[in-house]
Amino acid sequence: MKSGTQEINIQEQATLAQEHTDYPVSFFIEGNMMTDEIGVIYYKPHQIEIKSYFRLNGNALPQDNGMVYLIETIDGRKGTLVYKFDAFTDSKVFNFLKGYVYSKNKNIYPD
Hints:
Layout: E1 2-3, E2 6-7, H1 10-19, E3 25-30, E4 33-36, E5 48-56, E6 65-73, E7 78-85, H2 91-106
Parallel strand pairs: 3-7
Antiparallel strand pairs: 1-2, 3-4, 5-6, 6-7
C-alpha cells in the first residue's frame, strides 16, 4: 500500500485499515492473552473470532511483511491484530493464533 509515492510500514497500513473499517481497536498479545492498548480486558484465543485477514508485503522494506487480522471479541469489540514477519518476530502472536486455530478445530482451549 502506498501513501502518495512514499512506502509506508505495516503498522501504518494497519492504522489505515482501522480508519476505513469498523475495527477501531488495536489489539496486542501480552503473555498468552490478547488485550488492547489500555490493557484492562484480556482475551484467550477461544474468546475471539477472526473475521478476515490480509497479507501486507513490504516492497521497499522486506521487514514490513506481515498479516493484519480483523478480530471480534466475545463481548463485541472489534479491532486489528498485526503479525509482522521478520528475523526477529516475536512468537507470542504466532502461539496465540495457534491456540485460536486449535480452539476452533477442537471446540476447546488448553489452559
